[in-house]
Amino acid sequence: MARKRRIIYWAATIFLSIGMTAGGIQQLLQVGGYNAIVSSLGYPLYLLSILGAWKLLGVAAILIPKFPILKEWAYAGFFFAMSGAFASHLAVGQPFGEAVPSLILVSATVLS
Question: How far is 75 from 58, CA to CA, in rounded Å?
Answer without folding.
Answer: 8
